[in-house]
Amino acid sequence: MKIAVDLHGGDRAPEMVFRAIQLAIRNGFVEPEQLIAVGTGLTIRHLRRHFGLKKIEGFEATDVVDMGEPITSALRKRESSIAKGISGIKNGDFQGFVSAGNTAAIVSAGVAILGRLKSNLKPAIAVPIPNSTGPCLLLDAGASASNIGIFDLLHFAKMGKIYAQIIWDIPDPKVALLNIGSEVGKGDQLLRDAHDLLGQDDSLNFIGNTEGDRILKDDINVVVCPGIVGNQLLKFGEGVVELISEQLGFIWKVVKFLSRFTKHAEYQTIGGAPLLGVSGNIFIAHGKSSPIVLANAIRTAAKGIELDVNNAIAAEINNKTLSK
Predict the structure, then answer these.
(1) 126-130, 195-199, 282-286 — which is least confidently predicted?
(2) C-alpha to C-alpha distance for 274 and 152, rounded to whole angstroms
């Protein structure tokens, strides 16, 4: 197994990525020989010389996609670390790619270079979110933000179910539809029809609608929603955390410090969000990720590749629903 890591992905790259690679190796998530560092020659040399990672194989890129760079510009950079990392999967140089870089560029390049796992299957970013009852996955978080139909939401549910079964070892994940109310009949026509469709699928343990104020507390393993909704929900959550951090200051730092010992929060959390529905293993971490979070993304990528999540998804989603 070979996993490529984008040295230029993230607000604090490449130093943050260097430290993440160190942590991933130190904690036994991967062996040094399993990692490939994708970046400019200068950055790869710096990684080897100053971080004691001489065994890491390098895969040279000559360009970098900036975090806020427009998609049209990013896709023209065919020698960027993102493009080279994803092309390497297609060419068989490695089996997975992990990046905390420009999310839109990663998704667009993933679909353009690797193609979809099945025709007409829209990709979805599946983000692990906090939940008081156990592991929970939100999808889509922004990979497919427009022209979403009820069968797309069904496919998101099936992909999320498979991922939760394989990665989290949950035999029958509870699936919910994010809506404006928990009652049957809530939402617009898309959500009402999707509710009926998900409820009719015997392969899903569909428990009905959930609301934005309930997804952290309800007993749910998979939350399904259109990408534009999921993306805004996550950004609102990030804003809340930042506001609390600013208001509480030192007290917030103490809470975070204690949580590492009481809940082992950072190492127990599945790092990174898989891009499901494309013909390759891509894991996206937040641009503000800490080295620990990115190290966890590397760990999750290794597990996803080993357990062959993509083939399980391809077997689950049939051509009948894809033709709708």
Answers:
(1) 126-130
(2) 17
| Element housing 60 (H / E) | strand 57-60
Tally of domains in the chain: 2
Residue range 128-140: mean pLDDT, rounded: 86
Task: Name residue 262's amino acid.
Answer: T
- Using the predicted structure, report yes or no on whether residue 213 has a pLDDT greater than 90: no
List the one residue out of 248, 250, 303, 256 whose CA is nearest residue 281: 303
- Sheet with 222-224, strands from edge to edge, namely 127-128, 137-139, 222-224, 174-178, 205-210
Compute the average pLDDT of residues 294-309: 93
Both 51 and 96 in a single domain? yes
Q: What is the pLDDT of residue 145?
A: 78
pLDDT at position 59 over 90: yes
User: What's the domain range around 296?
Assistant: 1-121+277-307
Q: Is 243 exposed, middle or buried (0-12, 13-18, 19+ CB in 10 A)?
A: exposed
* Residues recorded for the chain: 324
Residues 95, 113, 302: CA angle, nearest 5 degrees: 20
What letters, b where the CB count within 10 A reaches 16 and e where it falls short, cover 38-65? Answer: bbbeebbebbbeeeebeebbbbebebbb
**Residues in CB range of 2: below 8 A, 6 or more apart:** 34, 35, 36, 57, 93, 94, 95, 96
Report cis status (omega within 30 of 0) of the bond before 14: yes
Say whether both 111 and 160 belong to one domain: no
* Among the ranges given (13-17, 60-64, 120-124, 210-214), the one the predictor scored with the smallest mean pLDDT: 210-214
Does residue 39 have a pLDDT over 50? yes
Using CA atoms of 202, 208, 214, 215 in order, give the dihedral in degrees to the nearest 10.
30
d(CA 137, CA 9): 23
Q: Are 157 and 124 in contact (CB under 8 A)?
A: no
User: For residue 324, what pLDDT is reported?
Assistant: 54
Residue 95: CATH number of its domain: 3.40.718.10
Inter-CA distances, 150 with 136, 184, 194, 197, 214, Å: 22, 16, 5, 7, 22
